[in-house]
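Supplementary notes for students who missed Thursday's class. We covered one full example, reproduced here. Read the sequence, then the structure, then the short commentary at the end.
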Amino acid sequence: MNIPTQTEVLVVGAGPVGMALTASLADKGVPVVLIDKQAAGENTSRAAVVHARTLEVLTELDVTDKLVSRGIIVGQATVRERDRVLLHVGFEDLPTDYPFTLLIPQDLTEEVLLERLVTTGAQVSRPCELTALAEDPDGVTATLATGEVIRARYVVGADGMHSLVREQSGIAFEGDTYAQSFVLADAVLGGDVPDAEIRLYFSPEGVTVLAPLPGGRHRIVATVDDAPPQPDHFHVQHLLSTRGPQQHPATVEHIVWSSRFRVHHRLAARYRAGRIFLAGDAAHVHSPAGGQGMNTGLQDGLNLAAKLAAVIRDGADDSLLDAYEAERRPVAESVVAFTDKMTRVATVDSAPLRGLRNTVLRALDWVPAVHHKMAMNLSELGIDPQRVG
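Structure (token representation):
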């Protein structure tokens, strides 16, 4: 493995965020090295949703059309309790060239980003594990598990929730862990299942998301009190039978992939510590209910890449890099709060409160402004003040 010993930017973590950031920097002529400790792409976040704002920013890399061609375009989401629709959220009227949500498995997103990365002349060095970082006034020395060192002007940690870069930088990861875990599963389903809609099912046991994927598959995301590490046919069917449609039940025909994760809502206290930066899950994690984690991270990465290029290539003052945290941390703070509220509203365990919640949601469903605000929040277009109103 031939890794440069010196570079302007070292990016740690080759998930979608790390690859997009690296491709953007390389495209701008900035020397960059991307390392990942996995032998192959094994990012376990398994994101499946790309929202409108992310499709917009990815046009910089000229990958948006390719992603859209490989995914499923979804025009609306509904909030339900069993067969009863409580709230509609339509994306068709969003102020964007991409008035929809795109459903595409993370492995396909990573495949498209990796293809783009290669066209820039950059590459992913893996398996290549970081073990330590040491910063000094002139740069950062990164030590690898092999004993090799890489000298970089700046380091970006895009290495996930358990980020070693964050740990080495001394940045606190503030927040908590939900008592519940959550199940992810891709399955071939029968019965009442959506082919152009995202459904959020509310129940006392937890929130369950059901969404279509390419190839006739569906993604199930569900918060649960307890589940085996790899939920099987029985467990996934039980979730759908007890929380999903009743009149025409959804049936599991085949489990393609499944896993269990803990649900956290945490936010890095800072996004910058000297020459070290955080992006994606290294900086923020939250409930997957809105499908916004990878989206927020990709927007982080391209925002930071533009600022690093301005400093390194164009000679802008280093203080410009402080704007990264100022611009992006409030976005993540808002997403964490929004998804936390959604998760708590979904899991109300009191029958009277559930009845009140459902009555309120059905009343709000008659208010166009509510539909618009929900769509703007989910799509993350609402972060742009010029488009809010």
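Commentary. Residues 77 and 198 are 4 Å apart (CA to CA). The longest strand covers residues 173-190. If anything here is unclear, bring it to office hours.
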